[in-house]
């Protein structure tokens, strides 16, 4: 039995309820994982792949969890979430992040794979505040799993770009000027959470991949309308329409 842990956010609340006909969920258990930074709720799913008959486990953690509220991105305690994900001893951790796209070949509704991150938050995320530990970030997204997922997603969209993900603090969306600056620095998409998770998982030497869900065009990048506004509820709704592709990606991770 293989096991993966999923860190997800915007538009992903109903992901567990949208499983495709190729799998069955035989068990769903709500767990609460204690961490040094607070309690983290997680759903542990036992799934069965219909074609092979194999059973596997998926631990799903909503990174914005809160006591009846949606925790804004700048207030997320990423250490608690990553600690909880690692407590399941997964074969790989999958970060699913909604992003604004700056690439013509990554329109809303498509999924890319993270290649690198650019962190502009100024926030330090580490498990090592008292004793310096320097994790290597040269190639911090797992190549084997990324290739497998890219091949699976390739059956549903024309291309599966490998993208540089810029992380901004939020909770506001970026300005067109900020997007232009990010593009000049090599960013392909922009989000508010991935870099923090990548740094913490690199410190724990855990295999990690990032699925960047294009949920909107970045500010100023909408084809034919550079003044188009970005609406959070529209972003959330669009992100939720890619559940089929995300399940395809997740199930491909069961090597």
Tell me what the structure shows.
With 255 residues, the protein is of the alpha/beta class. It has a single domain, classed as Rossmann fold (3-Layer(aba) Sandwich). Helices cover 23% and strands 30% of the residues. It contains six helices and nine strands. It has helices spanning 78-87, 143-153, 176-184, 194-203, 232-239, 243-252, and strands at 3-8, 23-35, 38-49, 55-62, 92-101, 111-119, 162-167, 189-191, 208-217. It has a five-stranded mixed beta barrel with strand order 5-8-7-6-9, surrounded by five helices. Helix 2 (143-153) packs across helix 6 (243-252).
Shape call: globular
Order of helices and strands: EEEEHEEHEHEHEHH
The residue fraction in helices comes out at: 10-25%
Going by CATH, the architecture would be 3-Layer(aba) Sandwich
Largest sheet entry = 5 strands, mixed, barrel
Oligomer: single chain
Fraction in beta strands: 25-35%
- Give the spatial strand order of the biggest sheet: 5-8-7-6-9
| Helix-strand makeup class | alpha/beta
> In whole angstroms, how far apart are the ends?
10 Å
Mean pLDDT: 92
Individual helix count: 6
* E-strand count: 9
Q: What is the alpha-carbon Rg in Å? A: 17 Å
